[in-house]
Design a protein that fits this description.
The chain has a single domain, classed as Orthogonal Bundle (Arc Repressor Mutant, subunit A), CATH 1.10.10.10. The chain has 5 helices and 2 strands, in the order αβααβαα. Helix 2 crosses helix 3. The longest helix is centred in the N-terminal third of the chain and has 12 residues.
Length: 98
Amino acid sequence: MNDAFAYMVLSAVEEIPEGRVATYSQIARLVGADQNARLVARVLSCAEYYGHYPCHRVVNASGRLAPGWAEQAFLLEEEGVSLEASGRVSLKKYQWKP
């Protein structure tokens, strides 16, 4: 993975305000890599090697949380982002609009 790309992604993630979420594809567009939402997800899965970033604020295009990361729901709820009964985040209500 390219460190410069990783830091561009993580810098964009740092901009997401508390209580809001962004999607992987939204972050990809913000860093000029429109077709690379999966690469954004990969960067976020390794973010701990680069420092502390609010990666919990990034969800998929339908509002689903990252698989296997139970703490994500807790962190979002602490910031006031409530989950729907399906366990998803309402993008209509919580999506960040930079």
